[in-house]
Amino acid sequence: MIILAVESSCDETAVAVVKDGRTILSDAIASQADMHAIYGGVVPEIASRKHIEAISGLAEQALEQAGVTRGDIDAVAVTYAPGLIGALLVGVNFAKAAAFGLGVPIIPVHHVRGHIAANYIAHPDLEPPFVCLCVSGGNTMIVDVRGYTDMDILGATRDDAAGECFDKAARVLGIGYPGGAPMDRLAQGGDDRRYELPRAHVADAPLDMSFSGLKTAVVNLVHNARQKGEELDLPGLAASFGAAVSDTLVPRTMEAAKRCGYGKIAVAGGVAANSRIRADLEQACRQSGDKLYLPPLSLCGDNGAMIGCQGYYEYLAGTRGDMALNACATREIRLG
Ligand code: KG4
User: Where do the domains of the chain lie, and which CATH numbers do they carry?
Assistant: First the structure.
C-alpha cells in the first residue's frame, strides 16, 4: 500500500511517500527555521504562509523522488492535530484536495503518534507494546503504546515542553533557533555540575513533569550574571541544563517502563536527538535490562515519513477522514 503523507503542524513542511507503513520511498522537507530565527521563535502567521508556498512543490518532489505516479497512491495521510492551527490547516486542506482529486481515502494522523511511528521505520523488529518517551518542541509525555493505535498517557509536562525549554535557554544565551541542537553542541565537554539548576517534582503525580521553573532559572541566572558583569561558563551552563532536563525525563521513563513491564522503551520527537538524554537512557537501560529503541537523528524532528508510517496503521485500524476533516490545535494522543 502506497501512502502520500503530509506534515505541516509547526515550522517544517514535509511530504513523503511510504510503502506498507515501514519503507520510505521519499521524504521531502522544507524547513522554515531560518525565517523564524529572526524572531527567536515560530511566528504562526509566517509559518502558515510558508507552508502554502512550499507544499505543492514538495508533493511533486516527493512523487518524483519515490518514482511513483499519482495513480500509484492508495491513500493520503495528514497530520491534523496537535499543532499551530493555521499551519495544520494548510496540510489538511492540501491533503483533502489530493485525496479528492485522486479518489483515495484520507487518513487523519495525530502528530505525536507520528513521532512514535518514526521508530517503526528505524527498527523493523519493533512492535507494540512498549513505553515511549515523546519529547519535542510542543509536547513532552510518556506514552503507554499498547497497540499501533491504542495509547495512553502515563505522565506529561504540566507546563512547557522540554524542547520549548531548550529553545528559550538558547535564546537567552543568543546561540540560535531552534536552540536544542546548539545547546547540545555547547554542552560537549562542559561540567554538568557547574550550575545548580532545579529539577521539579509534581506532588502526587510522580510521572508528571514541569519545565517552566528550569526555564525561568536559566533566564534569571543569565540576566543576573550580565547585570553583575560576571562571565558565564557557557559549556558548563549548557551541560548543567542538559543534565537537569535528562534527570527529569529519564528516571520517569524508567519508572513508567517498570510499571508496564514490557521490557521495551522507545524515544521520539526532536529532543530525542539530544546526546545527553540518549546516553542517560542507554545507561539506564543497560542497568534495567530494557531494550532501548532510539530513532536516527534524521527521524527525530518533524518529517512526513513518520506520518505515512502511522497513517498505514491507522488505515489498518479503520481510521478514515472525509471532506469535513478539520484541524485541531490540541487533541489527546489516546483519542488519535
Ligand atoms: O519534533 P520537532 O522537530 O518539532 C515538534 O514537533 O515540536 O522538535 C523540535 C524541538 C525543538 O525545540 C528543538 O530545539 C529540539 O526539538 N531539538 C533538540 C535537539 N535537536 C532538536 N533538543 C535538544 N537536543 C537536541 N540535540
Answer: 2-115+301-335 (3.30.420.40), 128-298 (3.30.420.40)
Q: Residue 238: what are its φ and ψ, rounded to 5°?
A: -65, -40
Q: Taking a C-beta distance cutoff of 8 angstroms, is the pair 294, 3 a contact? A: no
Question: Are the C-beta atoms of 117 and 130 separated by less than 8 Å?
Answer: no
Q: Which residues of the chain have pLDDT under 70?
A: none
Atom of ligand 1 nearest to the CA of 83: 6
- Ligand 1 pocket, residue 157 CB under 6 Å: no
- Residues 191-206 have pLDDT tens digits of 999 999 999 999 999 9
Task: Report d(CA 201, CA 263) in Å as an integer.
Answer: 25
Amino acid at 265: I
Which uninterrupted H or E stretch holds 3?
A: strand 2-7
pTM: 0.97
Instruction: Count Cα atoms within 13 angstroms, Cβ side, for 326.
Output: 5
pLDDT tens-digit profile of 155-197?
999 999 999 999 999 999 999 999 999 999 999 999 999 999 9
Question: Candidates 29, 132, 166, 298: which one to mutate for ligand 1, based on the most atoms within 8 Å of Cβ?
Answer: 166
Nearest atom (ligand 1) to Cα of 185: 26
Q: Which helix (H) or strand (E) holds 104?
A: none
Identify the DSSP state of 204: T
